[in-house]
Design goal:
- The protein contains seven helices and 16 strands.
- By secondary structure, the chain is α+β, with helices and mostly antiparallel strands.
- It folds into two domains: 125 residues, Major capsid protein gp5 fold (2-Layer Sandwich); 125 residues.
């Protein structure tokens, strides 16, 4: 009888392993919830309840009156195929390496790490493109998904504590029945700037529950609590009008309103043997799903040093 563990042709589901790879360098891929895409153009519904500014009361015995009702809106994003290849010669596998690890396994592990870092970069910096013959389609990352509270700051602007609190308030106001952003992603220079804020009683907490090992700053305003994380892939936003990047970015998102939607979960695939070598790839297809971009904030153009 053939058992599943004897089937060497089956594909390996690496998603559980991906969660434990480079968690500090890829916090979004590590922390965001998963969803399922069923097409290369992923679609989902978003609904929003507008808080009332006044209330019409019903009189005793009056007939029912009906106001206007809104329908959920349809949001979309395109999936990306990320593939990282690896190849090792027969001789390299035969020699005894210093780390006592099979060379093919070692290179596959490196490819997995590289796959996750590429995926993280796309989640932040992907620029939507439908693709064409010979050109891959590209998903919209945070810098394209967040539009309601997306603002360019004059080049060289310094991030102030007052502005941080203003952004948190704007997020709370736009969020309606949702709270304000609770996760801030900034480059190292802006993280150092925020570390110096005093009004919000910044402190550090252990994020081991989120599979992260680095300490994460917590900043509190009247709009709520936000975790502050430095991120090496959050730098600037490409702007052809200025011939390059417009400056350092600030992302404030509500973590549970973004998901990684997989059309194909990452897996290891060995490729056809074409000589005295073995080759394979880590491949997966996914996109970023945004359930409420209106309460997220993106500002860019800050001084690189804060």
């Amino acid at each position: 009888m053939l058992m599943s563990y004897d089937d060497t042709s089956k594909r390996e589901d690496l998603l559980s392993i991906v969660g434990d790879v480079t968690p500090d360098d890829t916090p979004l891929m590590t922390m965001l919830k998963e969803s399922t895409a069923t097409s290369t153009l992923h679609e989902w519904l978003v609904d929003y309840i507008t808080p009332p500014t006044s209330v019409t009361l019903a009189s005793e015995g009056a007939a029912a009156t009906f106001g206007s009702l809104s329908q959920p809106t349809r949001s979309t994003n395109r999936t990306n195929i990320v593939a990282k290849t690896f190849r090792v010669s027969g001789t390299e596998r035969a020699v005894k390496p210093g780390n006592n690890q099979d060379a093919l396994d070692y290179q596959a592990a490196k490819a997995l790490r590289s796959w996750k870092m590429d995926a993280e970069w796309l989640i932040i910096n992907g620029t939507a493109s439908a693709g064409a013959s010979g050109y891959a389609q590209v998903m919209a990352g945070l810098n394209g998904v967040i539009t309601t509270l997306a603002t360019f700051r004059a080049s060289g602007t310094s991030l102030s504590e007052t502005e941080f609190q203003d952004m948190h308030q704007a997020s709370w106001e736009q969020g309606g029945t949702e709270n304000s952003f609770d996760l801030v992603l900034v480059p190292f220079g802006l993280k150092r700037k925020i570390d110096g804020f005093t009004a919000g009683a910044t402190k550090y907490v252990d994020q081991s529950d989120k599979k992260l090992t680095q300490p994460v700053a917590i900043y509190e305003t009247s709009a709520g609590i936000a975790r502050i994380m430095q991120h090496r892939m959050v730098n600037g936003v490409a702007d052809t009008a200025v011939g390059g990047y417009t400056g350092t970015s600030f992302f404030g998102i509500k973590e549970d309103k973004f998901r990684v939607a997989y059309l194909r979960k990452p897996f290891k695939e060995m490729l056809a043997k074409d000589g005295d070598r073995e080759a394979g790839q880590i491949i997966g297809e996914f996109t970023l799903e945004s359930l409420s971009e209106r309460s997220s904030v993106h500002r860019w153009g800050y001084n690189i040093n804060g």
